[in-house]
Amino acid sequence: MHTDLVAALDIGGTKIAGALVDHQGRILARTQRPTPAQENGETVMGAVEAVLAELTASELWPRAGAVGIGSAGPVDRSAGTVSPVNVPGWRAFPLVERVRSATGGLPVELVGDGVAITAAEHWQGAARGHDNALCMVVSTGVGGGLILNGELHPGPTGNSGHIGHISVDLDGDPCPCGARGCVERIASGPNIARRALADGWRPGPDGDTTAAAVATAARAGDPVAAASFARAAQALAAGIAATATLVEVDIAVIGGGVAKAGDVLFDPLRRALRDYATLSFVQRLTVVPASTGTDAGLVGAAAAALRGGSTVDEARRQAV
């Protein structure tokens, strides 16, 4: 039978999602399980295998020719292993080998979740038509990936473009990664909320202290809440400008929960970018919200599987 589909896995600290995806990026079958993130490694793998078992039971499964995995990181694409920060039971866990064995020996492509979302945005979303792009996820953490010369650029280990751990404040707070003043330490959702609370912001009667609640307060004119988002925007602008200066991307696409703050984030971000992206060759840099939505991880994992060492477009041509 013609293998015109790929299997996709999107593995995070909250859920493990799986899908069968066609070469146009359409999801034809899907399933998911909660991630038993605090359990041992085999229990977590059991949840992955349960997702794969549902996919392999589908009548569409014989049409699947490869598996793509987008996983919380760090990942090591060259070794086929994952060590997600928020899944302590997996340290150098041989995920590629285990998935290959659970799927009857199909080829498996592993990338970090930021790289997967980059692949999705370039294939189906806001970075479509751009040969050089940075795509970011700003959520509980800050991740990212790069499109260079029209191709996904995962790097040797699958972590290239991990903008969350560029240092933008030399004397800043220590980051859990071991460095100081990282973009993530300032601009992630929990850190936006932490700064707002430390500076005197108080939640409403519902007691909600998330970044979404800070965004609501900022929108209503709370100066402390707005200042916390402005600081996050400044950190993001510094990281984006540094990346654009280094590799000449012309668009930065931002998704994840924090991007849902809309103008509360994007207005100060675009203003700050003018202060950091100052050289002539980065002045045309634009920043836009992501557009692939909650399925970005699955679509991007599928794109990575289709890519299999080539671009999505080449893979699609070969499959026809």
UniProtKB/TrEMBL annotation:
Among InterPro entries, the record links this protein to: ATPase_NBD, ROK, ROK_cs
UniProt xrefs under Pfam families: ROK
Where exactly are the transmembrane stretches of this chain?
none
This chain belongs to the protein called ROK family protein
Q: What taxonomic ancestry is recorded?
A: Bacteria, Bacillati, Actinomycetota, Actinomycetes, Kitasatosporales
What family is this protein classified in? Belongs to the ROK (NagC/XylR) family.
Instruction: Output the superkingdom of the source species.
Output: Bacteria
Coiled-coil ranges per UniProt: none
